[in-house]
Inverse folding.
């Protein structure tokens, strides 16, 4: 039977099925997040309610904003989706100009932005949004909102959201950005807290990550062992990019030796290719954080690996003392905080690329990775380089899986 398999076209299918790069655009491709989707649909249905989706980089914010409204179309109402990306040079005028460029009223010639030779102000936006009919459900998505540097833009956006409460029709604004909380994204958020609903996006659960992998392998008519799914789930740490990337390369690796089964070893041997897919800013910061200066040996790579193995609290933070156990295991002898607090400090500063962020006060400092995608990369890299032995890895892997399974 196997002789009949068209390996070449299966390979192509794998590349279409696992998508580590682009955001999801179809409901069928989107795993989990049921409660959050419902929440956003409710916000879209309610008048004068808007949403701000925020969370770590790469958790799936854009994908969610792409799909949550797909099944809101009814016989009497059509969703009008307008999605734009903000950039660091944007002002209120240029951001809304992007939106207006995508609106074309039937009684006008050309896109709406042409009717505004001067600056677009909140009242202009208000009046244009008022023109959508009762049979339409406009959803305006302003993605990459964290990139806006112009403070005046944020102030005007708050003014706009306040003003929109007067509208009789029901346009919904969805702001999307990388942030730990909305304080950095929205000005004077207390004044619009009833109108701008916070939708924090957490990492995906282990079940959701396994769903990403298993549903896709099933679709490809391939098999994946439980151990292999666990490995991918563990490495991914709730970040769907890694689930897609490891899934993709594991499937390709299997296909290259004409197999339809993915086992644990297939996953392990696809790590290299997954690491090569990681954004270069991550690989660069890793190099910077662990660099040898004047070729002198140091333990930065070991300390960083220990940080990546450390159990964190719900929001990804860990303390210096929680690094002691994994670091001692890596080094093969006991290490206590004073022996590596210098390293933690250095890696939280600009000299070593600020891979870690330090918060809190002296003695109760908490650390977390500045970039979410860094932690899985460190584990894979450290395994590859032999900084973490397979035994140490398994010991801490088991511990973390137990903790995650609760
Ligand atoms: N629910 C999901 N099911 C399956 N794959 C997902 C899901 N959410 C996101 N992904 C995948 O994860 C990766 C990151 O998704 P996305 O671009 O939506 O994240 P993001 O939070 O917008 O990232 P960024 O912070 O870089 O803008 C993409 O490869 C996407 O296909
Ligand atoms: Mg995005």
């Amino acid at each position: 039977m196997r002789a009949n398999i068209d390996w070449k076209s299966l390979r192509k299918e794998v590349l279409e099925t696992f998508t580590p790069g682009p955001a999801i655009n179809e409901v069928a491709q989107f795993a989990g997040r049921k409660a959050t989707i419902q929440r956003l649909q409710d916000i879209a249905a309610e008048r004068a309610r808007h949403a701000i989706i925020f969370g770590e980089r790469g958790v799936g914010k854009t994908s969610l904003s792409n799909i949550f409204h797909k099944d809101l179309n009814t016989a009497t109402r059509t969703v009008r989706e307008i999605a734009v990306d903000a950039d660091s040079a944007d002002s209120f005028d240029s951001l809304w100009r992007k939106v207006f460029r995508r609106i074309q009223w039937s009684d006008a010639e050309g896109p709406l932005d042409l009717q505004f030779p001067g600056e677009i102000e909140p009242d202009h936006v208000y009046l244009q949004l008022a023109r959508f009919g009762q049979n339409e459900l406009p959803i305006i998505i302003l993605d990459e909102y964290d990139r806006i540097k112009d403070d005046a833009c944020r102030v005007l956006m708050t003014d706009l959201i306040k003003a929109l409460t007067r509208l009789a029709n029901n346009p919904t604004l969805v702001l999307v950005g990388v942030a730990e909380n909305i304080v950095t994204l929205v000005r004077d958020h207390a004044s619009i807290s009833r109108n701008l609903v916070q939708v924090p996006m957490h990492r995906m659960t282990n079940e959701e990550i396994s769903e990403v992998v298993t549903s896709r392998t099933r679709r490809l008519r391939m098999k994946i062992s439980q151990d292999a799914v666990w490995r991918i789930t563990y490495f991914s740490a709730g970040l769907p990019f890694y689930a897609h990337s490891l899934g993709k390369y594991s499937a390709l690796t299997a296909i290259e030796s004409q197999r339809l089964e993915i086992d644990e070893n297939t996953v392990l041997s696809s790590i290299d290719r997954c690491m090569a897919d990681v954004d270069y800013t991550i690989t660069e910061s890793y190099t910077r954080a662990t660099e040898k200066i004047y070729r002198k040996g140091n333990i930065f790579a070991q300390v960083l690996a220990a940080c990546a193995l450390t159990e964190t609290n719900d929001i990804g933070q860990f303390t210096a003392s929680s690094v002691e156990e994994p670091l001692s295991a890596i080094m093969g002898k006991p290490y206590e905080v004073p022996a590596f607090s210098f390293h933690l400090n250095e890696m939280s500063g600009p000299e070593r690329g600020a891979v870690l962020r330090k918060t809190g006060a002296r003695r109760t400092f908490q650390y977390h990775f500045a970039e979410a995608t860094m932690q899985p990369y460190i584990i894979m890299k450290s395994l590859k380089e032999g900084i973490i032995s397979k035994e140490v890895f398994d010991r801490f892997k088991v511990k973390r899986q137990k903790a995650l399974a609760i």
In short: The chain is about 45% helix and 10% strand.
